[in-house]
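Researcher: I've been going back and forth with a colleague about how Multidrug export protein MepA might be arranged in three dimensions. Neither of us has a model we trust, so I'd like an independent prediction. The organism is Lentibacillus salinarum, in case that matters for your notes. Sequence below.
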Amino acid sequence: MSLAEQKLLSQSVTKSFFQYFLPTLIGMMLMSANIVIDGIFVGNGIGSVALASVNVAVPVWSIIISISLLIGIGGGTLYSITTGARDTDRAQRVFMLAMVGITIVMTVIGGIGYIAAEPLARLFGANPDTLDYAMDYMQIIFMWAPILAWENVLSIFVRNDGSPQLAMSGLVVSALLNIVLNYWMIFILEMEVTGAALASVIATAAGLLIYTIHFFKKESGLKFVRPVWKKDDLLMIGKLGFPNFLSEGGTAVFVIGYNIALSYYAGTTGLAAFSVINYLHTFMFLAFIGIGTSIQPMISFYYGAKKYDSIKNTVRIAEITGLTLGVMFLAIGWFGAGGLVSIFGVETEAIRQLAMKGITLFFIGYLFMGINFIYMTYYQSIAYLRPSIGITLFRGFILLIAALVILPVWLGTTGIWLALPVAEGLTAIFLVVFARRGVMNRELRSHGF
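Model: Here is an independent structure prediction for Multidrug export protein MepA. You can compare it with whatever you and your colleague have in mind.
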């Protein structure tokens, strides 16, 4: 019996949730710290233009992470369902398909992205001031895309296989090493944004090495077996991971949309102010991703084991946790906006004031974000994909783009900052009014896994 089976079959839902959630939350905070640390060192060591340039390149991370989540979460969900159903052979086969698949896909994407860095940077919102820095950063990230993707996918499987503490440990090592390398490469070697990108890659590789410890555990369910390319498994991995792929794709749309809107309404000052907020947003956003990541293996396992009351209890605990985080983040934004902006070495008062105003408005969205991720993950984890995809499309694409187009016409930059809270808020209200009662009251059924 694997470690995940031992825990989830014998423990209370509350104990299992916090065993997954606390190390996952710490891990996600440290993952986001890697990106925020880049921003702090770039802003203080190079300047606001370089900071804005790295922010322009952030969609590269979204491309890599979205593909990683497509294969990693899709494979991890199917792995947990099959483990709950005691189908060990299929579970191991799914793991191998995910690892081989991400290697092939990321090698191709990394090569294309490296060659096409300049047109991609312009597409992502780079202007003449930020283009060169953005290209330098992007080419390093694309060059080492397979390593970045392996780390993401393997951390998901390690967590799903009952070792969230080890997944957290890899991120601790990565975050601490990233601090040291950023300082060394930017301030000592003066490698500018190239150094920031290399620091992230090397730190991520160190985290990847930590995850390999899991394979030496006696109770590990992850085994390297000969890959078997079965159509049903490939299709199910793709289907189960598609909502996360869309969600991370929505992150790229979010960054590009905000870059374009702020460049139009506020120029380079607006881009620099958004770069500060986007670094902070990465930190907050990954906390809510952490809730979804925590409940996914639980719900998928309970679904495979037909423990339906445990699924409902998991959703309830996650809702309370998501609302608590949202209130906490909003309070931090309202009362600490000035301090948050200061740590990025902002050079002008205009950028500082615009960023502070943006924080107080933008952070309202965190009140609603937890609900949206919980229900997206719930439907995905029971292999009921249509509602999960619908939630992702509406909050991350349709409503967000509409808000970015319409609200600035009426409210200027205030409307841009409010676009995300409006999109998240409307989605959450719909889910609470129309979806929650059905989730808590109906008997679950098979959705074609």
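Researcher: What would you highlight for our discussion?
Model: I'd start with this: Residues 231-304 form the longest helix (74 residues). After that, consider the following. The chain has 16 helices and no strands.
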